[in-house]
Amino acid sequence: MHYITAIMSAFSSSVTSIFGKLSLNVGASALQILFLRFFFSLIISGLFFVLLKKKINIKYLLFFGIFGIVNYGIAAYLFFYGLRFLNPAYATVLFFSNPIFVLIFQKLIYKGNFSVFNLFAVVLSFTGIILSNLAEKSIGGSENLVFGSLLVILAAIFNALFITLVGDKIKKLQLSPFESSFYTFLGVTILYFIISIANKELYTIKPDYYIYGLLLAVFSTLIPLTLNYFSLRKINSTTLSLIMPLEIVFASILSFIFFDEMFNILKVLGFSFVVVAPILERVKIKK
């Protein structure tokens, strides 16, 4: 069941780069759309929090709020800013270099041991990303391809740190996924609210931006994060980070439909490697 919810999370997350790109195309800044995304996420998760009759715990708020800022503040902003220079499917592929960094963080922080299957799955995922990068260049990326790519890879590093630390902690806490999500969104919304006021971008939000903020809140934020918190109660962070690249398949299909994104054999091969990596990881666990 926990593997199914992780795959469902990947499917839901696949619209992030699509709705993000569309919102930037109508003139929204990365900061404005991120504020709306997490503001709506906070409202929806807050309703569940109240219905469950939960009370705010300052300790949990600080933990999930701070690490929520690492993932949905720093990482999300870097991803959305880099998306200005990249095609959605390619940006998604780059972002899912995060299994490599999860592996590194687990080794450095928790001194974890990894099997040959673990290492091979990560190497396969990384090889797929390299092939996709070469294919994107051959198709003809923007002149800021390298800069945009670096921004998204940095986003992947911060996301990996979030998955590693929160994945370990959430197994020890008796919290429902809705509680964890509420604390995360509260911390992130406060951050973006303060920054939006300081930059005076809060006052220039147009009605067109609200629909994309709401769509991102539901499909890219609330649903996948809640499902991820549920999955992390039973599966480890490395396995989750290897399942999430399945999002690439869905993002690629949507990018083709909405943006006519071009593909060649090398790019398809790279995407395939990234998708096969979590399957190998699952085979190892069943054995």
From TrEMBL:
Main location group: membrane
UniProt membrane topology term: Multi-pass membrane protein
Membrane-traversing stretches: 30-52, 61-83, 89-109, 116-135, 147-168, 180-198, 210-230, 242-259, 265-283
UniProt name for this protein: UAA transporter family
InterPro entries: AA-Vitamin_Transporters (IPR050638), EamA_dom (IPR000620), EmrE-like (IPR037185)
Annotated organism of origin: Thermosipho africanus (strain TCF52B)
Hydrolase recorded as keyword: no
Pfam entry (one): EamA
Location(s) in or outside the cell: Cell membrane
